[in-house]
Backbone:
């Protein structure tokens, strides 16, 4: 063969652990430089081979993940399966494919680049690790975490000891078994939090217990590894070299904590609030990360250890944590890390699993998984966690991920575990984690905790009872309108309002979600959000102006948008709120155009509307509420067609009756032939509620009543458009209206935002200039809720009943 065609030659030699491949490669065979035009082979050069490898890896893993995603499988599993498909056991059997795509020299370069990417990935995982969570660890979490780690470790090692006494095994198998046990005892914090985030349960009750338990497992693992590692080194070493390596590792960790951490903190402090880090600051930290990797190698430690420890001591969250995630997500996590896990699959060979030794290793793995599941389940049940949730928690702790896969390949490359043990560990990881993820998804619904809560709404609240409102804010633009809406709700000593302000922030640059009161957080989580401090001050000032009639308490939620509604539901249940007010996902500019549109916030609202433990109000703010600061009469229109949500909106409007600065217009849209419907239960309830409202407002000049008779949806639209010309500043309407009703029939064909309902969606378009509050009573399917969503008299204090006679005969809404 000519030198143009050949990039390397190879032969087999005895390696440190087994027979290995020796590659002799030409140093100038890097860039093809158009050799194909002269009859050469482009893929005889290393760079084209590397590019082809990345393209193939990305394509194969993306296709596999697309197929596995409906089964709730993770990206790591797809990448490992992709590696197996492209590896020795499948496509690697084809000689031409193996020589062209993964030649020995080309694979060496791929592994080097993948290790570099994985080193940065470990740094990101370290940044995500929030060590302040240790303060939140309680006795229950400690017991669950310790038993989840020690149960598989002790039972597995005992089983290994008994098996080795009963059966004669190869040296490689005996050496592998203790490491197989220790690897199965792990539940790394980054792996568990990544799993929980993928399944959208990171900020659920079981998610928080699993997060803290995995942190306890990590700490237990480090303690056991240090103690037994030191003992083994002292017993086996003939000189002090190993002791010196441990000493230098301790010195290196000290340098990271007391030398490099202050540098990184000083870089973070120089970043202007609300801005990203500058390029020179970013490159400085990259240089420090690379240096830590180099020093780790020099001290005989894995190259990712130094960057991981550096990440742990790096401040998480904005600006550094989120900046690194944003900058590294695409290239490192999207391209380089998949190459690392594909290599893990490439190294696996099914044919390495043989007879008795394979059965023994498989048995030990099964024992360890069983012990880990049981070791998590039993203490969870001991601490009164219900069986279904305890099973879910045990399944979570049994899942494996990126850290374990990287450990498997490192130990296999170093000859510590055999190829047989490596293959069985990977197969068991894929099977157990795949089955567990699917079961967790179907068994655990975080909203079940609060959907079983007793019904709470305006309709069951007596007018003179304390009104409890949960106000959600995403940014400073939400605050003025919400405060003025609270002011319009007429807080007085006879009608007090308890306000619970929940600041919602997207989880960025950290792995664990946060839900706590601001008094306990002491400003640590909001230090980089000046607008959140201003929001807190604004609501506190409102409470001071209404002292004796308003009480305010602040909470902060830092969570993924996909599960943020669970935190809202948790606070609503814990504080027994009547209604949750959330801002609409669109914001308007002064000229009436949409200034901001957030699909993520829309997802939060839709999830909340679907799974709410109390009434929900979506506020579409066009600035009129915010600009009206009580200087003039505030024009409010209640649009009433009928149904439980309109009745809930009507109950809320009773708060406006005593407010001298509000002029309320009640618009009741009714069909021309409404008399023939009066015998229906729902129509009779609507009439009863409207009559109660009219009786309370007789002689009140600020309350006007209009009854509009229409034939169809066209007539309804005409009435609604007339509101736009009446000087209305806020229109209140119920969310749900029966689509088959002639009053709204056909409107759903143009429905862009179903979460607002048929009329709410129409009012939220650019055709109207006033703000809108869309009200929904508690979601159907919750406790005490019939599918028909019936209502009860305003202020009756009773829950949903079949008729008023039922309410008369029932003395408590829990019994109804």
Residues:
């Amino acid at each position: 063969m000519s030198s143009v065609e050949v990039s390397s030659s190879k032969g087999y030699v005895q390696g440190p652990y087994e027979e290995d491949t020796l590659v002799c490669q030409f140093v100038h065979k890097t860039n093809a430089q158009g050799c194909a035009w002269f009859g050469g082979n482009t893929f005889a050069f290393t760079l084209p081979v590397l590019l082809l490898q990345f393209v193939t890896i990305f394509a194969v893993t993306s296709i596999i993940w697309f197929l596995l995603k409906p089964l709730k499988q993770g990206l790591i599993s797809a990448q490992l399966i992709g590696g197996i498909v492209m590896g020795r056991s499948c496509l690697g059997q084809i000689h031409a494919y193996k020589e062209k795509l993964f030649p020995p020299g080309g694979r060496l370069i791929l592994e080097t680049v993948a290790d570099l990417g994985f080193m940065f990935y470990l740094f990101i995982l370290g940044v995500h690790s929030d060590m302040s969570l240790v303060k939140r660890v309680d006795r229950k979490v400690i017991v669950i975490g310790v038993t989840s780690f020690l149960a598989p470790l002790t039972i597995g090692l005992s089983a290994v000891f008994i098996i080795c006494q009963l059966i004669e095994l190869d040296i490689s198998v005996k050496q592998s078994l203790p490491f197989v046990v220790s690897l199965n005892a792990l539940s790394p914090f980054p792996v568990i939090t990544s799993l929980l985030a993928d399944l959208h349960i990171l900020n659920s009750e079981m998610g928080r217990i699993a997060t803290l338990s995995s942190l306890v497992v990590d700490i237990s693992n480090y303690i056991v590894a240090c103690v037994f590692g030191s003992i083994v080194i002292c017993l086996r070493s003939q000189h002090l070299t190993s002791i010196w390596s441990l000493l230098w590792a301790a010195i290196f960790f000290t340098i990271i904590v007391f030398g490099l951490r202050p540098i990184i903190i000083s870089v973070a402090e120089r970043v202007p609030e609300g801005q990203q880090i500058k390029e020179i600051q970013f490159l400085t930290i990259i240089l420090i990360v690379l240096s830590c990797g180099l020093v780790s190698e020099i001290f005989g430690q894995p190259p990712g250890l130094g960057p991981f420890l550096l990440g742990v001591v790096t401040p998480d969250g904005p600006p550094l944590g989120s900046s690194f995630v944003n900058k590294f997500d695409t290239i490192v996590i999207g391209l380089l890390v998949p190459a690392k896990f594909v290599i893990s699959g490439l190294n696996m060979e099914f044919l390495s699993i043989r007879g008795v030794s394979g059965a023994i290793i498989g048995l030990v793995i099964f024992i360890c998984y069983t012990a880990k599941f049981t070791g998590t389940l039993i203490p969870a049940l001991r601490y009164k966690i219900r069986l279904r949730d305890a099973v879910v928690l045990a399944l979570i702790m049994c899942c494996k991920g990126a850290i374990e896969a990287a450990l498997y390949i490192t130990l296999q490359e170093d000859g510590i575990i055999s190829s047989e043990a490596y293959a069985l560990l990977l197969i068991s990881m894929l099977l157990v984690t795949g089955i567990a993820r699917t079961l967790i998804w179907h068994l655990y619904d975080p909203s079940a905790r609060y959907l079983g809560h007793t019904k709470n709404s305006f309709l069951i609240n007596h007018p003179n009872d304390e009104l409890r409102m949960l106000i959600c804010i995403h940014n400073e633009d939400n605050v003025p309108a919400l405060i003025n809406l609270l002011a319009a709700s007429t807080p007085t000593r006879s009608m007090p309002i308890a306000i619970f302000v929940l600041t919602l922030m997207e989880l960025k640059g950290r792995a664990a979600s946060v839900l706590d009161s601001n008094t306990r957080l002491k400003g640590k989580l909001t230090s980089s959000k000046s607008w959140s401090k201003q929001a807190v001050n604004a609501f506190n000032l409102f409470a001071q102006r209404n002292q004796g009639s308003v009480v305010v308490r602040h909470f902060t939620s830092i969570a993924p948008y996909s599960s943020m509604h669970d935190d809202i539901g948790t606070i609503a249940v814990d504080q027994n709120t009547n209604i949750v007010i959330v801002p609409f996902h669109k914001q308007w500019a002064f000229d009436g155009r949409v200034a901001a549109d957030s699909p993520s916030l829309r997802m939060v609202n839709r999830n909340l509307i679907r799974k709410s433990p109390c009434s929900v109000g979506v506020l579409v703010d066009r600035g009129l509420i915010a600009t009206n600061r009580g200087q003039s009469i505030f024009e409010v229109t209640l649009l009433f067609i009928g149904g439980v949500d309109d009745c809930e909106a009507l109950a809320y409007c009773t708060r406006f009756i005593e407010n001298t600065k509000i002029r309320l217009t009640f618009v009741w849209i009714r069909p021309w032939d409404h008399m023939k419907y009066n015998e229906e239960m729902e129509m009779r309830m609507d009439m009863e509620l409207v009559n109660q409202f009219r009786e309370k407002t007789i002689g009140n000049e600020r309350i006007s009543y209009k009854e509009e008779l229409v034939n169809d949806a066209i007539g309804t639209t005409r009435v609604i458009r007339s509101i736009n010309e009446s000087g209305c500043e806020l229109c209140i309407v119920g969310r749900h209206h029966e689509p088959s009703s002639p009053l709204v029939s056909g409107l759903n064909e143009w429905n862009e935002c179903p979460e607002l309902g048929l009329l709410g969606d129409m009012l939220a378009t650019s055709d109207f200039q006033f703000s809108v509050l869309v009200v929904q009573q508690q979601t159907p399917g919750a406790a005490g809720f019939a599918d028909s969503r019936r209502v009860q008299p305003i202020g009756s204090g009773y829950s949903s009943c079949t008729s008023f006679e039922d309410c008369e005969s029932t003395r408590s809404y829990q019994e109804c």
